[in-house]
Amino acid sequence: MATFLKQSKFIISTDPGDVPADESAEDLMEAGPEQELRQFAVPDSQHAQRLDRVLASLIPEFSRSYLQQGVESGLVTLNSVVVTKCALRLRAGDQVTVELRPTPQTQAFKPEPMPLEVVFEDPHLLVINKPAGLVVHPAPGNWSGTLLNGLLARDPGACLLPRAGIVHRLDKDTSGLMVVARSRQAMDALVQRIAAREVSRQYLALGHRRWTGPEFRQVEAPVGRDPRNRLRMAVVDLSRNAGKSASTGIRLLQNGEHGCLVECTLQTGRTHQIRVHMASLGHPLVADVLYGGAPAAGLARQALHAFRLAFNHPVTGQSLAFAAPLPPDIRAALQAWGLGYNDN
């Protein structure tokens, strides 16, 4: 999580990477209660340099992209005149004033109370049942209302942990179980155990089309960025240094005329791994439009639920196992297709 310093009335990140390169001019133009004016004279060493280069040199805690957008948004004056061209050449002694305004990202890591379904809690960790539609981390388009914001509001100590203790994530429209650290000791241990594949994670998924072939398949197919669509992941060729190895065990639970209910066990945790592997088998998840699925059986979100989570407690060593029942929307979809599932 970013570290912030309070200067004047503006929150300034100590990490230039905390200010996104794609921050929109509209965001910058939104006047907020927190802002700061920086005033300076152009030094001799910067004579004849571009305005954006001078700003990046004299205000190094912000990205050049952020400062360029500030110029284009009318937040910079040169000798008391508003300027909007980044390429304008400055002269030594020119008086420059910059109005710095907070971006959505600098305000993202703030507490926001929200209801969370807590399955287990002790001084070192939480296990929650995340609903579909809840984003885990702040990101472009979702700078607030995320699980991270809720964790900061629920536990004051979360602000002392990277990412408020989040050690793995679920996609926005995937429901189910997540473990969250509440202490640094637990967080470090959980990260190591997940990397060592010592945390068991199982999912229920509803795929299109009737299942054929063996009832159990071990899918070993590397996953990486789709070279034809950068918004997607895909099965890729490791020999071309693309992607990472990915392994998913998939077991048929119920088969029907329109689709199949399967249990997926992750051996690795690549981005969109189950969604990519199911699509590669010809069974894209119901309502997973990104990977070839379509809304059906009343479902408008991808039919994926993290229903089982098991691991040894990172501090006490106790064996822990948790299960989350199918959410109503996936259960209704199964009934619509004449399929059943017993949570027991």
Output the structural class.
Answer: alpha+beta
> What proportion of the residues form beta strands (DSSP E)?
25-35%
Poorly predicted runs are 1-33
Most strands sheet: 9 strands, mixed
The quaternary state of the protein chains shown equals single chain
Q: What radius of gyration results from the CA coordinates?
A: 25 Å
Total strands: 17
Query: Helix amount, in percent?
Result: 10-25%
Arithmetic mean of pLDDT: 87
Distance between the termini: 39 Å
User: Counting H and I runs of at least 4 residues, what is the number of helices?
Assistant: 7
- Note the run of SSEs as H and E: EEHEHHEEEEEHEHEEEEEEHEEH
Gross morphology is elongated
Would you spell out the secondary-structure blueprint of this structure?
Blueprint: E1 4-7, E2 10-13, H1 25-29, E3 36-41, H2 51-58, H3 64-72, E4 76-78, E5 81-83, E6 95-100, E7 118-121, E8 125-130, H4 147-154, E9 175-181, H5 184-195, E10 200-208, E11 216-220, E12 223-225, E13 233-235, E14 247-255, E15 259-266, H6 273-280, E16 304-312, E17 319-323, H7 328-336
